[in-house]
Design brief:
A hairpin with a 4-residue loop joins strand 26 and strand 27. The chain has about 700 residues and is of the alpha/beta class. Helix 3 (about 380-395) crosses helix 4, helix 3 (about 380-395) crosses helix 5 (about 430-445) and helix 8 runs parallel beside helix 9. The radius of gyration is 28 Å and the shape is globular. It contains 9 helices and 34 strands.
């Protein structure tokens, strides 16, 4: 039996092909390949294992990714708790013509944290005495589906006998404090049996038609006063049918990618524009009605895409992120604030105490049992303690303070957390001087936890180099590198990791995406040019599996009517979603990772990427497959010969998955979601001679 099995492949122009089986497709073209296009896969010299976390997901709450997106609550600002803007999302019907007063008050509230509610007063019975909630650029509802409406009510003076609840299509948009006019009624009901104490009421609405832009209308039955709080309209159809679950189609798109990890909740929202606006995970767990919302730091970051109504309800909180990670089979990778606000904004710093740096007995703050909002001037110890408490929340027993909170939320088993990130995208000496005591404190209590550290927002330069050197000196397990750049950068840097050290710190390509116009430009597109350039770069990640153990495109989600940043991996409206060409590139890699890297050489001494041909190969030790990824960034098809060096057995059939287009500017859309999508075919191999 020969020790080498050559096979010829004709790759489509400007395409990515992924071929797998116990061999590769038979000749598809008669043109003889050049020497440089002869590829040898050294099957008999397997390289590093492919980490199970190699290809994953980066979730950033930008572009309405959480509220209005993955988290399917349809009511915006359900508890009237947005500071200074308590009626965001709410409008009085016809400017409040039927209401004597409508205001937010805090007299005998539901709880100390949910201490604002709406008080509606009508002098006379009037069908227009009420409020309308606009949802997130409208409410997407489906005909025949069930939606759970719930609300807390308390009757005041007068003779209000009930609350009329109607789901309507939006008509003409409103202006100022006036609600959008009503279209046809899709569903309606009444809530009765009111009392003079807070009471939760629940009913089910079933729309008579599908609408992408509906609204919720609440009106008083009778005259008098009614207090309203925690208004919710939630679909029953959630992923795994969870009561506080996620939007089904969006989760399915994630699960279909077979992700190795889920990084959450960001991104720059971890930092906040100021430390008071930072993400505090302890505020995001527990009773939904007690979670205090926070303005999203992306709401006014880009004046050309300002969204002053963008906030975080924390209905999707850390417990739900952990649960989502389980649902899609991904390792959870929470990122925590390191005591620094965003350096692109205020650059506010938490002071470093002597205890945190080792001048005392180490982090000595008692395990926190409540919320942190009262801590207006936190020191670094506060942030360190939050990290220690998070690990206990995820992994601790029911007998522990924070493990008991997880159990109380319905998850008795530990989440088996293995990674945490210290800081998001910080840089400079301010980060390193906080990272070191933070890292040491975590390692002292939880030595098995892998820490993800930051190399900053740039993939090169003095700050990047100094951070990398220092983090390697500190024996950081994983260093997070970010790169947003033009498509050609990704093709030109396919060998970026070829000369990185094979020992010591590993690499997390934590945020990357090709920018078709410029970084942060609103004109960026998820074009085929960007996607295929990322595919080319990823062959370099895979070839260096001994150095790179995690990689994720960013950002993940974008609402077509409420985005701040583009490009993004998955786009959606209130009813539908689609994957971009970039999504399909990521999916082809993440669903075909293999288990072991196979060295791959080109003839004539050509390097990976020469003449715009890129390649990598892996073996799947579980299935016996050899998986070859080929990227041809060229307007012409080219024949390629692949030699499987040392193969002992060749199957009779295989599979070829091809993603290709002859238009580098082509994109997918809600109307053409599969314009660029993979095509898979079964291949037969001729008998060997």
């Amino acid at each position: 039996m020969p020790t080498s099995s050559p096979t010829r492949i004709a790759q489509l122009a400007t395409g990515l092909a992924l071929c797998s089986a116990l061999g590769l497709p038979a000749a598809l073209a008669q043109t003889k390949p050049t020497a440089a296009n002869t590829l040898t896969v050294q099957v008999n010299k397997p390289g590093a294992p492919i980490a199970k976390t190699m290809y994953g997901l980066f979730f950033e709450d930008i572009n309405f990714a959480a509220d209005g997106g993955l988290y399917p609550e349809l009511v915006k600002n359900k508890s009237f708790e947005i500071q200074g803007q308590h009626f965001i999302g709410w409008n009085a019907i016809r400017g409040g013509a039927g209401l004597q007063t409508y205001t937010v008050v805090s007299e005998r509230p539901i709880s100390a944290t949910n201490n604002h509610f709406a008080r509606l007063t009508a002098r006379t019975a009037n069908p227009d005495a009420g409020l309308v909630n606009e949802g997130f650029r409208g409410m997407g509802v489906k005909q025949g589906a069930e939606y759970t409406f719930s609300v807390y009510l308390r009757r005041g003076p007068g003779s209000v006998s009930g609350l009329r609840v109607a789901l309507e299509e939006q008509g003409r948009p409103g202006s100022g404090p006036e609600a959008a006019t009503s279209g046809r009624v899709l569903a309606e009901t009444q809530v009765t049996d009111l009392t003079d104490q807070w009471k939760k009421y629940t009913v089910v609405l079933k729309p008579s038609a599908t609408a992408a832009r509906a609204q919720l209308k609440l009106t008083l039955e009778g005259a008098g006063t009614l207090d309203i709080d925690v208004v919710s309209l939630f679909p029953k159809d959630t992923y795994n049918q969870r009561e506080n679950g996620m939007r089904t189609d969006l989760v399915q798109l994630l699960k279909d990618m077979n992700p190795g990890f889920l990084r959450f909740p960001g991104g720059c929202i971890v930092e906040g524009r100021t430390l008071s606006e930072r993400y505090q995970w302890k505020e995001s767990i527990g009773d939904l009605a007690s979670r205090v919302p926070l303005i999203n730091r992306w709401n006014m970051e880009f004046r050309h895409r300002s969204t002053p109504d963008y906030y975080q309800s924390f209905g999707l909180g850390f417990f739900e992120y952990f649960q989502l990670s389980e649902d899609i089979g991904a390792e959870p990778v929470p990122i925590l604030n390191v005591g620094m606000a965003c350096q692109f904004n205020s650059s506010e710093l938490a002071p470093i105490s002597s205890a945190a740096t080792g001048g005392g007995s180490g982090p000595s703050a008692p395990a926190s049992t409540g919320h942190n909002h009262a801590d207006d001037d936190p020191t670094l110890e506060t942030f360190i303690q939050d990290a220690l408490d998070l690990i206990e929340f995820a992994n601790g027993p029911a007998s522990s303070t924070w493990g008991a909170k997880r159990v109380a939320m319905g998850h008795a088993a530990p989440f088996n957390l293995k990674f945490i990130g210290i800081g998001n995208e910080q840089w400079g000496p301010q980060y390193l001087e906080r990272y070191e005591p933070f890292m040491k404190a975590v390692k002292a209590k939880y030595p098995s936890i892998n820490i993800v550290s930051s190399a900053g927002p740039s993939p090169d330069g003095e700050l990047f180099t100094k951070a990398t050197e220092r983090l390697r000196e500190l024996k950081a397990e994983v260093i997070d590198e970010h790169y947003y750049a033009k498509p050609e950068w990704f093709r030109q840097n396919v060998g970026r990791y070829d000369n990185y050290p094979t020992t010591g710190s590993k690499i997390f390509a934590g945020e990357y995406a090709a920018q078709s116009v410029a970084i942060g430009s609103p004109d960026n597109k998820n074009s085929w040019d960007c996607a295929i350039s990322e595919a080319a770069f990823m062959t370099g990640l895979e070839r260096n599996a001994d150095k790179v153990i995690m990689a994720s495109y960013a950002p993940l989600f974008a609402h077509v009517d409420a985005w701040q940043w583009t490009p993004d991996l998955i786009w959606f409206d209130n009813l539908k979603a689609y994957g971009t060409p970039n999504y399909y590139v990521q999916k082809m890699y993440s669903t075909n990772p293999g288990t072991t890297m196979l060295p791959m050489q080109r003839g004539a001494g050509a390097k990976n990427g020469a003449e715009n041909l890129f390649s990598s190969a892996t073996a799947d030790d579980k299935t016996g497959e050899i998986i070859v990824k080929l990227v041809n960034y060229s307007p012409e098809a080219r024949p390629v010969t692949v030699s499987l060096q040392g193969v002992k057995k060749l199957g009779k059939t295989g599979k070829a998955t091809v993603l290709a287009s002859n238009d580098l500017n082509a994109v997918n859309s809600l109307n053409q979601p599969m314009n660029i999508a993979p095509r898979t075919s079964r291949l037969r191999f001729p008998p060997r001679t």
